[in-house]
Write a structure and sequence with these properties.
With 102 residues, the protein is of the alpha/beta class. The chain has a single domain (4-100), classed as Glutaredoxin. The protein has helices at residues 8-15, 31-46, 61-66, 93-100; strands at 4-5, 21-26, 51-56, 74-79, 82-88. A 5-stranded mixed sheet has the order 1-3-2-4-5.
């Protein structure tokens, strides 16, 4: 499954579903975020049971505030509407998956 851009309008519906959701909070100007993007895309392709989305913190400041984002990249795994795991900063695919319990 591909990575989708997430905005505030679709957020509640997205996390209210039965599928786990992995959200990557990023900004276009962020070097570590650009390094993490292919890792997140690989996870999306390898785990079709997870909805994977990207949230641009510059465009979706309300969502960033809701999650208390002060540093990026920030990745959150959400199950049943609750954040169950997070990762801050760039991590290799293996490290990110381990941090998120995937």
């Amino acid at each position: 499954m591909s990575v989708q851009r997430v905005n505030e309008k679709m957020f509640e519906e997205l996390i209210g579903g039965e599928r786990p959701v992995l959200l990557d909070f990023y900004a276009d100007w962020c070097g570590p975020c650009r390094m993490l993007a292919p890792v997140v895309a690989e996870i999306a392709e390898e785990h079709p049971e997870i909805t994977v989305g990207k949230v641009n913190v510059d465009e979706e400041s309300g969502l960033a505030a809701k999650f208390g984002i002060t540093s990026i990249p920030f990745v959150a795994l959400i199950r049943g509407g609750e954040v169950v795991a997070t990762s801050l900063g760039y991590r290799s695919k293996g490290d990110l998956m381990a941090a998120l319990g995937l």
